[in-house]
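Table S2 (text version). Query chain:
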Amino acid sequence: MPVAPSVVPPPRLRYPSAKFILRGQTIGFSALLALMWIAELLHLPQRFFGDSPDAMWQRLGVRSFSLVAIWLTVHVTTVHLLRRLHELETFLRVCSWCRKVEHDGAWATMEDYFSSRFQTDTTHGICPDCMRDQMSRHMVARKVVPGERAARAEERQNETCRH
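Corresponding structure-token output:
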């Protein structure tokens, strides 16, 4: 008896959380700001490059303001991109043929997916639009005499193929 190969889903990639990414950016920019202040307080530009000590606070203010403006731009852009990424990751991939749902690399029936993911049971029903459509088809089918049923079925099949 042949043994069916086991299907192993691909490993799930772990993405760092948005808070982790934003915290890392903030720490990096804060470190740059601290290094700028330490360099000015230790008079490193004057010692190594011969800069004038008179413009120290003015230069430090402009550089600090510029760095904070860059950090704010990067922070806002990153928040926007992370929200968009989260939005795109929340799409549910559904097979257009059999209606199975892909989750973590494996395909499951819609019922199995909802029961495992949301701890909810599912049931089947019919929406009002489909109910009207099915009832109208049913009423048409009941009015057709047995010899005409095949012709009507073929007609419906041709209509479906054209759409």
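Notes on Table S2: The longest strand covers residues 101-103. Residues 93-124 form one domain.
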